[in-house]
Amino acid sequence: MSISLIITTYNRPDALLLVLKSIECQILPPSEVIIADDGSDERTKNLISDFNSQSNLEIIHSFHEDLGFRAAESRNKAISISKSDYIILVDGDTILHPEFITDHLKNAKFGFFIQGSRALLSEKKTKDVIKRQQLFFDFLSRGINNRLNSIHSNFLSNFFSIKDNYLKGIKTCNMSFFRKDCISVNGFNNEFKGWGREDSEFVVRLLNKGIHRKTLKFSAIQYHLWHNEANRSSLLVNDKLLQKVIAEELDWCENGINKFL
What we know:
By secondary structure, the chain is of the alpha/beta class. The protein has one domain (3-259): Alpha-Beta Complex (Spore Coat Polysaccharide Biosynthesis Protein SpsA, Chain A), CATH 3.90.550.10. 36% of the residues lie in helices and 19% in strands. It is built from nine helices and eleven strands. Strands 3-2-1-4-9-6-10-8 form an eight-stranded mixed β-sheet, sandwiched between helices. The chain has a three-stranded mixed β-sheet with strand order 5-11-7. Helix 1 packs parallel to helix 2 and helix 8 runs parallel beside helix 9 (235-248).
């Protein structure tokens, strides 16, 4: 099955470089890499061009103008140009375990989307990782805040991964789904501006459509670099958009990926 790996980024080329390098280390490489750029400056464009010139990966730069935080619309634009059956979403400040794509693919199942595992790196560790260009970690690595999430075990994953439809812990920094399922709910809602809830609202519509959640434990691991907390001034408005979808049991948004198809 073909896989499009979509990376959301905004003005953090040093972190994006590590993501791309970790993709080159994947046991199972993606069919294509699409960088959903939410309006970064020339540094990101230059990084992608330089990396493309010496990498075997097929990297596509999907860019739109910087008009503030518009991750939902940026993801929609990237998904709309994807050519694969299956979509994996990650953020541009996450380093992927070598079996990351393998784990997502072997757990892919019609009627489900997948939420992977995330280990958080400390601020000090993040600075060291960027300086040293570190790509590999394990349970004993220093600077991991939630150490249990760094354990990779197929045996434990079979026992502790969960199939249950709940919203807690939804993160599009590590999520996968069939492209056709995304299209069936009209993708992400472009009405979301500013940080927060665009991922949860998307998932609610998937659940309302009958697409269930599978949460992987000890599998599909990424290491999230530390960053400052995002501006949450839009959260009140975005919460209202989320609550509307929950209350009305909607499985479609009017302003979604259809804008780009």
